[in-house]
Design brief:
214 residues, alpha+beta, 4-stranded antiparallel β-sheet, DUF2179, transmembrane
Length: 214
């Protein structure tokens, strides 16, 4: 099989391109996982990376004497980085902290965001134009866009900054994130969902009040 590939220059170009995409994708994923502190994930990617290197890249490096092979190698390297970044984006490992400053003081917004399943710590601070509600919201990375769209639906003028914490320790932040709730709503229907949650809470309060009377 290796001989057949070597005898066909265009097949060799294709093999070099594909092998380098796979190799560099694993390399990129390993690097990102290492930087994020996911040691076991990084170790797993390093195993796959080494496997591709030993099996495939040896063949590639032995056939870089032709210009088209060099071009395929370079293009595969660049494409591999893009593919690796895209895979990491889809996996969306870890959490993000979203800092929000509302356009005006809003006592209900933190509760609404919390009801949707996010972990929220909030307070009130003063800006140039008066008192504002500030929130630190913890969300899995895969729900970042959903959270931002939700906040815009509830307060389109809110100031939003996101950052990725390197370490999370103490408190109940990760436990406070209710993934099932996060999956079960869409930003465009957030007001309807919050109304349903509010009605359910009122019914629960009424039942508890009746139990206390009994």
């Amino acid at each position: 099989m290796i001989t057949a590939i070597s005898q066909n220059p265009w097949l060799m170009v294709l093999v070099i391109f594909i092998v380098n995409i796979v190799y560099v994708s694993f390399l990129t994923m390993r690097t990102i996982s290492t930087l994020k502190g996911y040691r076991y994930t990084a170790a797993a990617f390093s195993i796959l990376e080494t496997f591709v290197y030993v099996i495939g890249l040896g063949l590639v490096l032995e056939n870089l004497d032709q210009f088209q092979n060099v071009v395929a190698y370079a293009l595969g390297f660049g494409a591999g980085i893009l593919v690796g970044l895209k895979i990491e984006e889809k996996l969306a490992l870890g959490y993000l902290v979203v800092n929000v400053i509302t356009s005006q003081k809003d006592k209900d917004l933190p509760t609404n965001i919390r009801d949707l399943g996010y972990g929220v710590t909030h307070g009130y601070q003063y800006g140039r134009d008066g008192e504002r509600t500030t929130m630190q919201i913890l969300t899995p990375r895969k729900y970042e866009r959903k959270l931002i769209d939700t906040i815009k639906e509830l307060d389109e003028k809110a100031f939003i900054i996101t950052h990725e914490p390197k370490n999370i320790n103490g408190g109940f932040w990760t436990k406070g994130v209710k993934r099932k709730r996060l999956k079960n709503y869409q930003p465009e229907n957030v007001e309807e969902v919050l109304e349903e949650i509010s009605e359910a809470r009122e019914m629960e309060d009424e039942r508890n009040a009746e139990k206390e009377k009994v």
